[in-house]
């Protein structure tokens, strides 16, 4: 495998139906074998640039300007030289079994069949994916899926490997492992990583490149120099810079009257419990962080507490201050009755979108509460501004970037001012600016005597809310 | 030891299942369907199909087949002595025979089709369709990858119901709610399809070069045995039917 050179000459991209350019006038040279950490605030076109280098940005997705070259060849014609790993790990899976999936790229590139098994074995070994080749791809954990995706592009013999937030959706304990596997496996290839968390990669890359939203390169150079000279500016732009904590922790707040109480609660789907014996109380003005490793039923607990899944056993009681005249069991409430009482933000924002534009999406909740047109419009506008979604008001929610979608899904829940807000991993993959924005919003909600129940891996977030801890195991 | 059927190529199984269905719709009579059902069933057992698993997979067919037979018996073309007459219902000797033939036919096609295709490996079938039947790789692999996504539809549907309840839009009438949610599922599926297409392209799918296949798909002795056995079973069914004079090609029924 020969490492690939990547070059942008006055390159730009405008997504279909948007007024602003995502990237404009970009000039960038990446030498063969170089390792680059690509930074920039949410919406700076980082994912778009990776897709364009991989030659998978379709003409129907927008308009381009300038040139993108891979080894002096047009990027669109250099398929196979550049391997792209998409943001969500499961988005990269094509086939049903691990071995078949890794082989998929080789087959497409016309690698002789006799050579493929060897390549597959070497690639899976290089990323440390120690499962049988016939293991179902659906049965892999997030970290294993990420390794599988990298193995898939390694087996192709790609000269450049581009990774879009490879550790954003991982359990924090799995992050260093996956990073080290990626670094070891891509030794000798050109590597470009997009990631918000600088500390994970700074000691392992040759150069940091910072993109400017709607522009080109804002800063670039050796990691230490860029961080020293640009650190505060980058932090202000939302990049996670070691040493810059966006928001100080609140002192833990005891919270006031109980709103929602679980006692010996067992949660699960279809009557089969995945977690039992949960005792927890959500209090007015207090936050509760639900922690624990993957797969212990945190999300199922959240959905149950949010009045969306029936409980399997035990008690879940909405106290009068929350129930406000309704019976104590939230699963018995109507959908519209739930709205001002318990809001819920799902782990996958896409499931929650019901309207064709961001503005209409925000209006759905207030309208269901039968607020007047003026009130609906005021609240919508307020949410657009607070969560920095104003420029996207007329965009389709499905076309937003991952970070923007997350912000929108939180905003839709806040728009109905629920007394209890249940959120599932609200800070996954967020830049520091959005993170701080979320902390502010949740903090305000707490100040207004609402309660926040957050499923999270993010200890810093729990600290920032001064949250009580509930650890499921 | 693997069952003999597991050693056959999925393409051979698919073609044999199609052959059974085609031959059995040529004529509606008790003899050909009965012989095919009995011999076909024995063939499957010999090939290592487990009766219990087959019965479970057959459940929907077992539930529906009697109704198909009953409908024909009650409303089918009248011929021969009238056994019962009540309004539109005319049960005659002829319609009763037709009803029984229909019942056996549905069962025979069901047993052979489900027995042969049940538990078939989608990836190997796609390999075979592209390499042996030379169907376009773009089509076959696109369908295969999309097929994997089908498994996610159920999960998506459940998540959508919960999400719509959380958004306060789940109180409308059932029909409207269903329509709204079905549309949301469609939007989500299209979106997933788009992401899948990008992931496939990112790995060189649809590129200009000639594609290779990591898993060669070949026809072997097991496939020859399967095809031969199927020819014998179908031949015996048709011969028995013709010799007993019960062979009635479908076209005659229409006339």
TrEMBL record, chain A:
Query: Which GO cellular component terms, listed alphabetically, does the Swiss-Prot or TrEMBL entry include?
Result: ATP-binding cassette (ABC) transporter complex
Keywords, alphabetical: ATP-binding, Nucleotide-binding, Transport
* InterPro entries associated with the record: AAA+_ATPase, ABC_transporter-like_ATP-bd, ABC_transporter-like_CS, ABC_transpr_CbiO/EcfA_su, ECF_ABC_transporter_ATP-bd, P-loop_NTPase
Q: Which CDD domains match?
A: ABC_cobalt_CbiO_domain1
Residue ranges of every copy of the ABC transporter domain listed in the record:
6-239, 260-473
A Pfam family of this chain: ABC_tran
Q: Which SMART domains match?
A: AAA
Q: Name one GO molecular function term.
A: ATP hydrolysis activity
| Similarity comment: family membership | Belongs to the ABC transporter superfamily.
Name this protein carries in UniProt: Energy-coupling factor transport system ATP-binding protein
**Lineage of producing organism:** Bacteria, Bacillati, Actinomycetota, Actinomycetes, Micrococcales
TrEMBL record, chain B:
Signal sequence bounds: none
Query: What is the originating organism of this protein?
Result: Amnibacterium kyonggiense
Q: How does it sit in the membrane?
A: Multi-pass membrane protein
Organism domain of life: Bacteria
Q: Which InterPro entries match?
A: ABC/ECF_trnsptr_transmembrane, ECF_transporter_component
Assigned GO CC terms: plasma membrane
The UniProt transmembrane annotation reads: 14-47, 59-78, 98-120, 225-247
Q: What name is this protein filed under?
A: Energy-coupling factor transport system permease protein
Q: Where in the cell is it found?
A: Membrane
Keywords, comma-separated and alphabetical: Cell membrane, Membrane, Transmembrane, Transmembrane helix
Report the principal subcellular site.
membrane
């Amino acid at each position: 495998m020969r490492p690939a050179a990547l070059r942008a000459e006055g390159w730009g991209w405008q997504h279909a139906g948007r007024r602003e350019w995502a990237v404009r006038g970009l000039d960038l040279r990446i030498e063969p074998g170089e390792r680059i950490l690509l930074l920039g605030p949410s919406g700076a076109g980082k994912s778009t640039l990776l897709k364009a280098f991989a030659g998978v940005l379709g003409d129907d997705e927008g308009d381009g300007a300038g040139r993108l070259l891979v080894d002096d060849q047009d990027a669109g014609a250099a398929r196979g030289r550049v391997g792209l790993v998409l943001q969500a790990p499961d988005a990269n899976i094509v086939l049903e079994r691990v071995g078949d999936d890794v082989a998929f790229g080789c087959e497409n590139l016309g690698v002789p069949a006799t050579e493929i098994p060897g390549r597959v074995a070497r690639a899976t070994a290089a990323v440390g994916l120690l499962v049988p080749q016939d293991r179902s791809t659906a049965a892999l954990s997030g970290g294993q899926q990420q390794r599988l995706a990298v193995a898939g592009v390694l087996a192709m013999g790609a000269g450049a490997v581009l990774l879009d937030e490879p550790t954003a959706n991982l359990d924090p304990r799995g992050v260093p492992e996956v990073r080290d596997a990626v670094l070891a496996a891509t030794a000798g290839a050109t590597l470009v990583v997009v990631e918000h968390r600088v500390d994970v990669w700074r000691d392992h890359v040759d150069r940091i490149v910072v993109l400017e939203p709607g522009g080109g390169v804002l800063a670039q150079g050796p990691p230490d120099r860029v961080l020293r000279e640009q650190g505060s500016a980058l932090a202000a732009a939302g990049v996670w810079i070691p040493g810059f904590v966006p928001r100080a922790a609140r002192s833990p707040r005891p919270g006031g009257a109980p709103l929602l109480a679980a006692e010996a609660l067992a949660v699960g789907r279809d009557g089969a419990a995945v977690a039992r014996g949960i005792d927890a109380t959500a209090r007015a003005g207090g936050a509760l962080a639900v922690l624990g490793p993957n797969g212990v039923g945190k999300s199922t607990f959240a959905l149950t507490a949010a009045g969306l899944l029936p409980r399997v056993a035990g008690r879940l009681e909405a106290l009068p201050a929350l129930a406000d005249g309704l019976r104590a069991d939230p699963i018995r409430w109507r959908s519209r009755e739930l709205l001002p009482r318990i809001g819920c933000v799902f782990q996958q924002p896409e499931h929650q979108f019901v309207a064709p534009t961001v503005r209409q999406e925000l209006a759905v909740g207030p309208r269901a509460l039968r607020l007047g047109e003026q009130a609906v419009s005021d609240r919508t506008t307020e949410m657009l501004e607070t969560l920095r979604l104003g420029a996207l008001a007329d965009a389709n929610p499905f076309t937003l970037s991952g970070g923007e979608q997350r912000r929108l899904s939180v905003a839709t829940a806040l728009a109905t001012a629920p007394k209890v807000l249940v959120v599932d991993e609200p800070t996954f993959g967020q830049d520091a600016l959005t993170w701080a924005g979320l902390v502010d919003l949740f903090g305000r909600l707490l100040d207004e005597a609402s309660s926040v129940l957050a499923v999270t891996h993010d200890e810093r977030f729990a600290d920032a809310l001064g949250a009580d801890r509930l650890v499921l195991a | 030891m693997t069952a003999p059927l597991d050693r056959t190529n999925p393409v051979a199984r698919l073609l044999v299942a199609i052959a059974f269905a085609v031959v059995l719709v040529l004529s509606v009579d008790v003899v050909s369907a009965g012989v095919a059902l009995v011999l076909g069933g024995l063939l499957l057992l010999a090939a290592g199909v487990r009766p219990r698993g087959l019965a479970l997979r057959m459940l929907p067919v077992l539930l529906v087949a009697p109704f198909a037979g009953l409908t024909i018996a009650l409303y089918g073309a009248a011929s021969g002595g009238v056994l019962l007459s009540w309004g539109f219902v005319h049960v005659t000797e002829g319609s009763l025979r037709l009803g029984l033939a229909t019942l056996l036919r549905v069962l025979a096609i069901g047993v052979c089709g489900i027995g042969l295709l049940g538990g078939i490996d989608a990836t190997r079938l796609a390999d075979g369709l592209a390499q042996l039947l030379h169907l376009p790789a773009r089509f076959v692999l696109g369908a295969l990858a999309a097929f994997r996504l089908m498994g996610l539809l159920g999960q998506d549907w459940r998540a959508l119901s919960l999400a719509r309840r959380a958004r306060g839009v789940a109180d409308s009438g059932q029909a409207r709610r269903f329509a709204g949610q079905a549309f949301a599922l469609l939007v989500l599926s299209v979106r997933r399809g788009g992401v899948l297409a990008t992931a496939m392209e990112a790995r060189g799918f649809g590129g200009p070069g000639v594609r290779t296949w990591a898993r060669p798909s070949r026809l072997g002795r097991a496939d020859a045995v399967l095809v031969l056995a199927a020819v014998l079973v179908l031949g015996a069914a048709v011969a028995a039917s013709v010799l007993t004079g019960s062979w009635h090609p479908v076209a005659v029924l229409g006339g």
